[in-house]
């Protein structure tokens, strides 16, 4: 790497290693842990990298501090999985002034000047929401219920989180196309099982005729399943209530195999290799696309889940 | 004349205001949505919003018991209880799963997991107690350490994963047993309350705790080991957090280091205050705290039932809390009394 | 209003829950007069003062001050100060964390460039304290000084501010004779300047020394107002108590010298760095030992290291010839000791607990946590001592903080008597206690000694000590400088020993 | 002889002592950092300056917290107040086209009113500060969500120009990877934070109000009986704190330029622990704003340690922060008790 500053980490020790500073959100979910693991296993010394990892404990201030620290440590690349989309202008300009390229992962950033970062890698939450919606359309058709009045409720994620916003919006797009779908209520379960359960309990008491539950992550879906069972109802492919969930962690496969969950839309956390690819391109001086989606799938009980789960990394 | 004194005895009782507050919250429900009080039977257990309050409030009740004693003896609050819950849940699940992410049968005996979780909870409490009683660090600061580290320790134990124990018996503690009319957590909290009550009333521990909380110097001079008492209350509080952690973990048959007991410390402190206890230490009313805990849960359940968005709930909660504590405010009561009294004088003069 | 009257209170009524603290009380204060407010413990003296200065509200009545057309009601001490009333309350009220100088001048700090002028303030404070012969560093926090010094600081503050009325509620309770004399000089000076002074005390001598007039309260009711010169002592006492009072000069059975010389406690070179220099002391069974010395001479400290309230760092202690290591008050207590502390508010009362709990707590602690005394037993004990010491309280469940100062002291005394100790340290036990009870307490001390118990008795009142003590240890500057035996005890000898002339 | 001993003792006396320990420990810690991470450039001036830049808001909030803690109170609503202030700024400027200056004035006014309300409940209705401000915390956080559940980026030019205005210090220049000379720089927020510190310091030391705060915290009953207006003093303290919290929120917003519901969660704990590390007692009567500044810097240094270390797992980060915090608090308590013993 180029230099000029005597204090830069790139000069000391193994100067041929590429130093990458990764500002991670935290470890608030299994998804996140898998995401971190993906980076840690990709950016190893063997692969020619030195990774400086920082955990922001879900606080944007901490991430800003970390980026400033990366700048001072003279890293070659900064990768950020922003806690939130907003408020990055100042610190990104500081990075730009130092000439350090920034790559975003998972969530996007809302900045006025797109040249402040090189590119973004992540899942498409809106598409995930739409996928879930389309799956439901097909499923209902299959069951011959496409004309009927369908009552549904949504367990939203933490309000304002990208995943919540995107999935809600995506599903709403499909909802708008189906006049017979009736969204009774949206309430946040804050992405946790306990809250999801509590909110679902409340829904079940309020509405007698819920047909579909949209849970914006797996954990809330698990909570909802318990609440439904406690209320003396059933769920899953053979039950009264259809449940769609997002993320598709391993536990979700277990739930689908157990017949409690209908469908899980994947949200792929394995961003590390993709980011490494991008860095190699940038090192080679190539242009990269601004937006890079990772591949995501959808799983439901009609598939051979037992086999699929063996191949899953998280 | 006699009636009046009875009325006064009732209204003067220290649990009167907390009970009134709980009643008001419930009454508001009765007006807004009568089916709040509808109770049906499902699978031999009672089912309804009120049962939810009793069920969901259990952890809070358990925490409030421990918190009451801590507040009383040390005039400070333990802000680490939420984190300790996570630690207890994590260690229990870790032991029962033998380190796997998800298991369908116990890797170790259930009792072992529970006992170690409770012991660890008590040890966490003891650490807090050591800092407060021996090193004389201010309670909130002392417990800030575990508040910060607790969830980290829990994640360390579970290696950052949510550990699932998919064994039906594991769900019992946080669920219900058919034949039992009320959910199990209620009985757990009942047991904790009774245990604490007996401990405080059958021995002179309650008196010691109050004395130490009011005047530690004087207490030392009358032969009470002030620091030991403070230490014990923290250890007990840790134990309570451990129990609450187990219940919370059983509800989701897993250990979620980030979310078990999240923000529970604040609700627990609030419960203590709503129960008419002073956060300045000294005299305490255990039953007041229990009522306070149910008041908070009733409020939360109500707001959910009304469909208030979860992130706006705090606004309503704040308003209700301010109204409740204002109702309990000595100053406001004095002010009303004065107004009332002058009015009466004027009336009698007219007559 | 007569034109030399500065303050009148008419028909003042004040109720506390369950207690009628003041009922139809009248009070008149004239210009340039020192007016004693007398009464037994719980008669309502402090309450009257608190009502006047706005600490407590009153139900009905009227307060007028010279220069004001209409009746005034002070809502807070702040307003009272604005009316020209400055007050020293019964319990010392200073901010422990602030420096002496700040405590003297807070609320009226000298200013420079719009900000507080610390230099001038410290200089003024030094001067003010020196005028009272108090040699302390005004820059140090008040909490570093003993109760007595704090009391002097509070007095200095009030005196310095006094405009029309100065109120002193038992200011002399922890002062020694020298300090009291200084205070009187000051009071006389202010009197000449036309300040009206209200003076509360339980010391009859002091009343007759400085006051012009006496108002007597009993049970919250006004007994009457008298000119001091025209009211004989015994009559005053009778008025306060509502009954005749037998002369209390001779309570010590003369000539019954204690022949038993069985040693109960022996301290050898016991000391604590920074507070008390190593000393040796023998305490025999059935003996009352007095500790005497000037303010801050270390009397309290000497006693505290025996009880383990402060840990000694040199020397040895023997109880019944057995060497003991007392590391905490609890251990001392288990060996049959008891300690009534000097600072009632900080170390004695447990404010929010009831009278009952305050009385039984020491015995309960002695018995142990799991041997809880039954409620019935607790109530019996409490009632017994309320009766024995004539504690004035609405009932046994009243929080102790609602009792008058003197009655609080009785509760603490009851607490220790209940533990039936072999050896009891009484640090200023009669502080703030009325004449009648004071005699009772002195009798009690002698009775304890008769029963073969040993007592350390600390008091600033030499007469009281003379009446009760068999032997006295004299302290100066944290050092025990001598002992006076029974036959050497006289006012003169003690004064001499304290002053340290020939020793 | 006694007197001489007393004179020497008084150096260690009073509030200055804990502050001295704090400063000394901070310096030791920083030097250790410089040695440990010498190869990574810990010793660069900008690393230190970044501590100030990133924590400007916290410094002001901790100053307000110090004032409250001196009176023996506590305010756990400040984190939420910051959130609502940021949200209001963002919402007003982006959604309602309010100018940057009026928006700033409005949020400062909001802080004042918020403080007034909390102060009223604490001082006139005598409700426990913890509970009042807990309710305040809930309220402000919920209010944030009510204003908008979106994340709003601030794009207002004037506001951004405040946020990005670099005040360059023409010393210790170095060359960056593009070959340009870079000087250390600060933002205006740092200057504002320091101004606030100095003003609060002077107020605490040289005004009657400032001293009354200490008196009330030392012993409320005594302060009342000495003729201070305890209620008003406390009320003003909360009003001042409300103002400082909103000003802190404004500085915080200059750093993040955005408003969203989850912002500044847990900031109150940072402020409280900073004040405590700086020698302010939760029991009241003792405290110093410069102590709180060092408290903030120490916490910042601990975090900087961890970012420079750069390999810790998420959970180890929490544990490491707590361990360093524990180490610091315990050390401080040992020093304090040694001093107590010497007395
Ligand atoms: N805050 C209070 N609440 C209830 N009762 C009180 C309170 N303060 C005083 N009393 C009662 O009022 C009566 C008068 O008390 P006060 O303090 O005026 O007595 P005093 O004459 O000053 O006695 P002492 O010489 O012991 O100080 C006492 O019976 C006391 O118990
Ligand atoms: N004039 C003084 N100047 C400085 N310090 C003093 C003075 N008087 C008392 N002190 C402080 O008080 C301490 C001793 O007070 P102590 O309470 O033991 O006195 P005492 O003999 O019991 O008298 P009393 O109980 O009447 O106050 C000393 O260690 C000293 O710090
Ligand atoms: Mg009195
Ligand atoms: Mg003494």
TrEMBL record, chain B:
Compartment(s): Cell membrane
Native source species: Ohessyouella blattaphilus
Q: Name one Pfam family in it.
A: BPD_transp_2
UniProt xrefs under CDD domains: TM_PBP1_transp_AraH_like
Protein name per UniProt: ABC transporter permease
Q: Which UniProt keywords apply?
A: Cell membrane, Membrane, Transmembrane, Transmembrane helix
Database matches in PANTHER family: ABC TRANSPORTER PERMEASE PROTEIN YPHD-RELATED-RELATED, GALACTOFURANOSE TRANSPORTER PERMEASE PROTEIN YTFT
Give the residue spans that cross the bilayer: 12-31, 46-72, 79-98, 110-133, 140-162, 182-200, 228-248
Bilayer topology reads: Multi-pass membrane protein
Give the main localization category: membrane
> Per its UniProt record, what InterPro entries does this chain match?
ABC_transp_permease
UniProtKB/TrEMBL annotation, chain C:
| Protein keywords | ATP-binding, Nucleotide-binding, Repeat, Transport
Stored SUPFAM superfamilies: P-loop containing nucleoside triphosphate hydrolases (SSF52540)
Gene3D superfamilies associated with the record: P-loop containing nucleotide triphosphate hydrolases
What is a single molecular function from GO for this protein? ATP binding
Q: Which CDD domains match?
A: ABC_Carb_Monos_I, ABC_Carb_Monos_II
Which superkingdom does the taxonomy of this entry point to? Bacteria
Protein name per Swiss-Prot or TrEMBL:
Sugar ABC transporter ATP-binding protein
What organism, scientifically named, is this protein from? Ohessyouella blattaphilus
TrEMBL record, chain D:
Under the heading PANTHER family, the entry gives: ABC TRANSPORTER PERMEASE PROTEIN YPHD-RELATED-RELATED, INNER MEMBRANE ABC TRANSPORTER PERMEASE PROTEIN YJFF
**Which membrane topology describes this protein?**
Multi-pass membrane protein
Q: Which UniProt keywords apply?
A: Cell membrane, Membrane, Transmembrane, Transmembrane helix
Q: Which residues cross the membrane?
A: 16-38, 47-70, 76-93, 100-121, 127-148, 185-204, 235-261, 273-295, 315-338
InterPro entries in the record, alphabetically?
Answer: ABC_transp_permease
> According to its UniProt record, where is this protein located?
Cell membrane
Signal peptide region: none
Quote the Pfam families the UniProt record gives.
BPD_transp_2
- State what protein this is by name: Sugar ABC transporter permease YjfF
Q: Does the keyword Hydrolase apply?
A: no
């Amino acid at each position: 790497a180029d230099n000029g500053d005597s204090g830069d980490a790139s000069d000391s020790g193994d100067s041929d290693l590429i130093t990458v500073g990764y500002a991670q959100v935290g470890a608030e979910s299994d998804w996140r842990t898998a995401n971190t693991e993906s980076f840690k296993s990709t950016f190893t010394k063997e692969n020619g990298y030195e990774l400086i990892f920082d955990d922001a404990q879900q606080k944007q201030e901490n991430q800003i501090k970390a980026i400033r620290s990366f700048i001072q440590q003279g890293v070659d690349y900064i990768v950020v999985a922003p806690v939130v989309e907003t408020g990055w202008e100042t610190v990104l300009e500081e990075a730009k002034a130092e000439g350090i390229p920034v790559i975003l992962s998972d969530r996007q950033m809302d900045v006025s000047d797109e040249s402040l970062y090189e590119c973004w890698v992540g899942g498409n939450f809106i598409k995930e929401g739409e996928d879930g919606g389309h799956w439901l359309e097909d499923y209902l058709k299959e069951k011959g219920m496409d004309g009927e009045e369908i009552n549904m409720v949504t367990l939203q994620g933490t309000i304002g989180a990208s995943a919540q916003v995107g999935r809600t919006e995506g599903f709403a797009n499909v909802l708008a196309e189906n006049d017979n779908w009736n969204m009774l209520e949206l309430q946040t379960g804050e992405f946790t099982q306990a809250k999801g359960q509590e909110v679902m309990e409340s829904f079940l008491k309020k509405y007698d005729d819920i047909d579909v539950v949209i849970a914006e992550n797996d954990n809330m879906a698990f909570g909802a399943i318990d609440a439904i069972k406690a209320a003396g109802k059933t769920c899953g492919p053979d039950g009264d209530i259809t449940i769609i969930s997002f993320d598709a962690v391993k536990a979700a496969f277990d739930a689908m195999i157990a017949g409690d969950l209908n469908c899980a839309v994947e949200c792929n956390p394995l961003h590390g290799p993709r980011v490494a690819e991008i860095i190699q391109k940038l090192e080679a001086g190539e242009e990269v696309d601004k937006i890079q989606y990772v591949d995501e799938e959808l799983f439901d009980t009609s598939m051979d889940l037992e086999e699929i789960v063996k191949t899953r990394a998280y | 004349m006699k009636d009046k004194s009875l009325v006064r005895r009732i209204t003067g009782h220290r649990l009167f205001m907390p009970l009134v507050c709980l009643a008001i919250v419930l009454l508001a429900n009765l007006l807004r949505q009568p089916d709040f009080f509808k109770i049906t039977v499902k699978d031999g257990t009672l089912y309804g919003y009120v049962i939810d309050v009793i069920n969901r409030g259990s952890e809070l009740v358990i925490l409030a018991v421990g918190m009451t004693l801590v507040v009383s003896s040390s005039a400070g609050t333990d802000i680490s209880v939420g984190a300790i819950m996570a630690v207890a849940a994590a260690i229990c699940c870790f032991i029962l799963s033998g380190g796997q992410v998800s298991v369908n049968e116990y890797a170790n005996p259930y009792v072992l997991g529970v006992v170690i979780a409770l012991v660890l909870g008590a040890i966490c409490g003891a650490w807090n107690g050591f800092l407060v009683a021996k090193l004389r660090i201010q309670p909130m600061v002392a417990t800030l350490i575990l508040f910060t580290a607790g969830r980290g320790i829990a994640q360390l134990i579970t290696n950052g994963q949510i550990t699932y124990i998919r064994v039906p018996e594991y769900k019992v503690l946080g669920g219900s047993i058919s034949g039992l009319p009320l959910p199990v957590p209620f009985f757990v909290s009942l047991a904790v309350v009774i245990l604490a009550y007996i401990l405080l009333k059958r021995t002179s521990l309650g008196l010691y705790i109050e004395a130490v909380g009011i005047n530690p110097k004087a207490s030392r001079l009358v032969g009470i080991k002030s620091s030991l008492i403070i230490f014990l209350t923290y250890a007990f509080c840790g134990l309570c957090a451990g129990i609450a952690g187990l219940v919370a973990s059983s509800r989701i048959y897993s250990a979620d280091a980030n979310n078990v007991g999240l923000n529970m410390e604040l609700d627990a402190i609030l419960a203590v205050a709503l129960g008419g206890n002073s956060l300045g230490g000294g005299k305490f009313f255990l039953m007041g705290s229990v009522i306070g805990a149910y008041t908070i849960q009733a409020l939360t359940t109500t707001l959910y039932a009304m469909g208030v968005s979860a992130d706006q709930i705090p606004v309503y909660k704040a308003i209700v809390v301010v109204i409740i504590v204002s109702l309990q405010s000595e100053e406001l009561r004095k002010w009303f009394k004065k107004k009332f009294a002058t009015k009466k004088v004027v009336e009698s003069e007219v007559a | 209003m007569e034109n030399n009257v500065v303050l009148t209170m008419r028909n003042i009524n004040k109720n506390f829950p369950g207690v009628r603290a003041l009922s139809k009380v009248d009070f008149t204060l004239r210009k340039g007069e020192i007016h004693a407010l007398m009464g037994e413990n719980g008669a309502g003296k402090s309450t009257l003062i608190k009502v006047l200065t706005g600490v407590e509200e009153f139900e009905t009545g009227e307060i007028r001050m010279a220069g004001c057309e209409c009746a005034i009601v002070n809502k807070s001490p702040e307003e009272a100060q604005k009316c020209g009333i400055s007050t020293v309350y019964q319990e010392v009220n200073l901010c422990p964390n602030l420096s002496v100088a700040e405590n003297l001048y807070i609320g009226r700090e000298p200013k420079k460039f719009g900000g507080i002028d610390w230099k001038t303030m410290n200089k003024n404070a030094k001067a003010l304290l020196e005028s009272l012969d108090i040699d302390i560093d005004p820059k140090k926090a008040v909490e570093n000084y003993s109760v007595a010094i704090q009391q002097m600081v509070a007095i200095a503050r009030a005196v310095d501010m006094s405009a029309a009325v100065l109120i002193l509620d038992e200011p002399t309770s922890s002062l020694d004779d020298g300090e009291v004399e200084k205070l009187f000089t000051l009071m006389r000076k202010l009197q000449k300047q036309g300040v009206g002074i209200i003076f509360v005390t339980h010391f009859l001598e002091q009343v007759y020394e400085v006051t012009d007039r006496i108002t007597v309260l009993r049970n919250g009711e006004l007994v009457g107002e008298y000119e001091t010169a025209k009211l004989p002592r015994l009559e005053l006492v009778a008025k306060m108590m509502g009954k005749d009072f037998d002369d209390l000069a001779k309570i010590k059975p003369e000539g019954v010298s204690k022949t038993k010389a069985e040693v109960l406690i022996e301290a050898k070179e016991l000391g604590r760095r920074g507070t008390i220099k190593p000393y040796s002391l023998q305490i025999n069974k059935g003996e009352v030992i007095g500790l005497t010395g000037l303010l801050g001479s270390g009397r309290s400290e000497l006693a505290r290291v025996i009880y383990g309230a402060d840990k000694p760092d040199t020397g040895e202690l023997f109880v019944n010839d057995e060497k003991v290591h007392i590391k905490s008050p609890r251990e001392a207590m288990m060996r049959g000791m008891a300690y009534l502390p000097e600072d009632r508010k900080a170390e004695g009362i447990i404010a929010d607990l009831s009278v009952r709990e305050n009385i039984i707590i020491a015995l309960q602690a002695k018995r142990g946590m799991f041997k809880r005394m039954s409620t019935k037993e607790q109530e019996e004990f409490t009632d017994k001592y309320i009766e024995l010491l004539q504690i004035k309280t609405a009932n046994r469940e009243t929080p102790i903080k609602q009792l008058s100062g003197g009655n609080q002291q009785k509760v603490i005394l009851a607490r220790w008597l209940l533990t039936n100790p072999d050896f009891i340290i009484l640090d200023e036990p009669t502080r703030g206690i009325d004449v009648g009870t004071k005699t009772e307490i002195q009798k009690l001390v002698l009775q304890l000694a008769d029963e073969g118990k040993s007592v350390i008795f600390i008091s600033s009142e030499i007469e009281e000590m003379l009446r009760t003590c068999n032997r006295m240890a004299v302290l100066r500057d944290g050092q025990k400088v001598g002992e006076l035996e029974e036959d050497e005890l006289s006012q003169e000898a003690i004064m001499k020993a304290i002053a340290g002339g020939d020793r | 002889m006694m007197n001489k001993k007393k004179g020497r003792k008084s150096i260690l006396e009073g509030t200055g002592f804990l502050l001295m320990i704090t400063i000394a420990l901070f310096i030791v810690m920083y030097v250790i950092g410089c040695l440990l991470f010498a190869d990574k450039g810990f010793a660069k001036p900008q690393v230190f300056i970044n501590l100030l830049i990133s924590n400007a808001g916290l410094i002001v909030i901790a100053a307000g917290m110090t004032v409250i803690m001196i009176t023996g109170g506590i305010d756990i609503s400040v984190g939420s107040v910051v959130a609502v202030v940021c949200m209001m700024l963002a919402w007003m400027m982006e959604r309602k086209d309010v100018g940057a200056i009026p928006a700033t004035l409005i949020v400062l006014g909001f802080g004042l009113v918020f403080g007034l309300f909390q102060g009223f409940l604490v001082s006139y209705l005598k409700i426990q500060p913890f509970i009042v401000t807990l309710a305040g915390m809930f309220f402000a956080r919920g209010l944030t969500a009510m204003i908008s559940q979106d994340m709003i980026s601030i794009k207002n030019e004037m506001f951004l120009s405040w946020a990005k205005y670099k005040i360059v210090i023409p010393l210790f220049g170095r060359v960056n990877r593009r070959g340009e000379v870079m000087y250390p720089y600060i933002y205006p927020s740092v200057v504002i934070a320091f101004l606030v510190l100095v003003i609060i310091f002077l107020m605490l030391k040289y005004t009657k109000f400032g001293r009354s705060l200490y008196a009330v915290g030392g012993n409320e009953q005594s302060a009342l009986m000495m003729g201070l207006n305890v209620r008003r003093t406390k009320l003003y303290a909360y009003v001042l704190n409300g103002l400082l919290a909103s000003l802190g929120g404004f500085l915080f917003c200059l750093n993040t330029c955005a408003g969203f519901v989850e912002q500044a969660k847990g900031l109150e704990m940072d402020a409280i622990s900073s004040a405590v590390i700086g020698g302010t007692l939760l029991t009241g009567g003792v405290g110093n704003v410069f102590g709180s500044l060092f408290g903030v810097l120490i916490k910042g240094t601990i975090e900087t340690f961890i970012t420079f270390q750069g390999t810790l797992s998420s959970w180890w980060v929490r544990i490491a922060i707590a361990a360093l915090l524990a180490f610091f608090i315990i050390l401080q308590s040992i020093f304090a008790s040694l001093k107590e013993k010497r007395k």
